[in-house]
Every structure is written in structure tokens, then in C-alpha cells.
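Long-time lurker, first post.

We've been arguing in lab meeting about whether fe (ii) ion would sit comfortably in this protein at all. Half the group thinks yes, half thinks no, and nobody has a model to point at. So I'm putting the question to the forum: if I give you the sequence and the SMILES, can you give me back a predicted structure of the complex? Inputs are below. Any interpretation is welcome too.
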Amino acid sequence: MAISDLHVGYPENREIVERIRPESGSDWLVVAGDVSERVADVQWALGMLRERFASVVWVPGNHELWTHRRDPVRLRGQELYLHLVELCRGLGVLTPEDPYPVWQGTGGPVVIAPLFVLYDYTFRPDGATTKAEGLELAYASGVVCTDELWLHPDPFPTREAWCQARLASTERRLAELPPGVPAVLVNHFPLVREPTRVLRYPQFAQWCGTTGTADWPVRFNAVAVIYGHLHIPRTTWHDGIRHEEVSLGYPREWQRRQWGHSVPRQILPTMCDGGMVW
Ligand SMILES: [Fe+2]
Ligand SMILES: [Fe+2]
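Top reply:
Settle the argument with this. Predicted structure of the protein with fe (ii) ion, as C-alpha cells:
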């Protein structure tokens, strides 16, 4: 099963997370980022889910990586990320820093690969050929991601430099997987550009991924890609591979959805209707 963008700072979302239960004792849960911007909230949610599911796999979203003014944890950038990784280890939750687990249940064996690849401003809006031009368009329109204020890249000079480092190390690990073994790739941000085409504000896409992962689903034998961040839950297909946006999102978003908020989404075994359980 998979879910993302729990945003448990909202009481309505906390109530939903409190109600999440596995369907069987052997279910695994993938949590694809944006649990909260406060470390204590991340601990609360992941700890509770870990008690319920046989295994929990987490990747960071941009909100976990904020050095938020209301969080007593003042760490920044990579130090904050590694702090969260240690917190997960204490809870028994798997992270991108652990060996990739292998799902042996129905639909397996499948490698579950939690990835932490940030964004590098290469999903540029039309008319922009550089990061500076893309940002200029965004600032001119007033649509600027809050990451610009609170997601610090320390010790890297920039977020795109951090992304480049993560791309290189992650690609090395994926290339070491035994050839032919199917994989589920999990990342907070979409691995391909196409899902961002439906954003209400196209200029927001520059905070939504990197062109550096475009061929990963095919190259690394993905049977499914799990992501969130866009708050547009749906299933799409790219190069014949299923991409699942599994976000819960903000209350004002899920309250509008006519199909309610039955979460999380089943990933394996693949459901005959394409995997939708919303
Ligand atoms: Fe989110
Ligand atoms: Fe996000």
C-alpha cells in the first residue's frame, strides 16, 4: 500500500492517519513524503503506522526538509535529513539510506526502492531556458514554492547541487540491482515530467523534480512508480509503466474530491482496474 502528503499538522489529516489500518497482517506501507514539517509530527505518524504495518518505508518530502519556525529542531539540509533517517531507524522504518527491501508477498519478488532525489529546476516553464529565467517567471507571477525560504541545502551550496549529488549516488545504487528483477521506485517528486503538465500553475513544476530521472523507470525495470507532492492523486502510464500519485493532500483539497479519502492506495498486487482504490 502507499500514501503520501499526510500533512499531519492539520487536525483533519491527523484523524485520517489515525484511522489507517492494513487490510492484512502482512501489508507493507510506503509513505512517500510530506508527513509534516515538524520532526515530532513525523515521529508520531511513522511510529503509529509502524506499529500497524508489517513494514513501513519512508522517503522525505520537501516539507520534512523545512527548517520550520515552529519546530524546535533547528537542523538544516543534510543534517536534518540524516536526523530523520536516524529517527526512522529508531522506529524500525526503512529509508533511502537502508538496503532496498524485497517484497516477497503476492506480486513479488519486487525490490522496493525508496529514493531521495530532490529537484534541480530543470522542469522549466515555457519560455525559460535557464534556472534564473524560470525563477524570474515564477516570481513575476507570484507563484513561488516556500522551499525557497525554508528548505536549506547545507552543506551543499544550492538545492540543485544537493539534487545532483543525490542523483549520482542513487543511480549508482540502482545500477547495482540484479538485472531483470522488477522494482517499485518510490520518490516524493515525480520521476518524469509529464504528471506536472496538469498543474494549475505550470511555473510550479520547477520545484517538482528533475529531468535526470526521466529514463529511470525503464532502465531500472519498474513495475510501478510511487510519488506524491503534486496533490493530484491519480494513476498515469508513461513508457508502459504505471505511475501512482498517492497523496492525501490538504483538507481543502481532499474535502473537494467527490470520491472522498479512502487511503492508502494498493500498489501490489496490481489491481485489474489499474490500481485505483480511491
Ligand atoms: Fe505535499
Ligand atoms: Fe511536497
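For your lab meeting: The CA atoms of residues 150 and 164 lie 20 Å apart. The pocket of fe (ii) ion (ligand 2) is lined by residues 34, 61-63, 188, 229 (CB under 6 Å). Whichever side wins, do check it experimentally.
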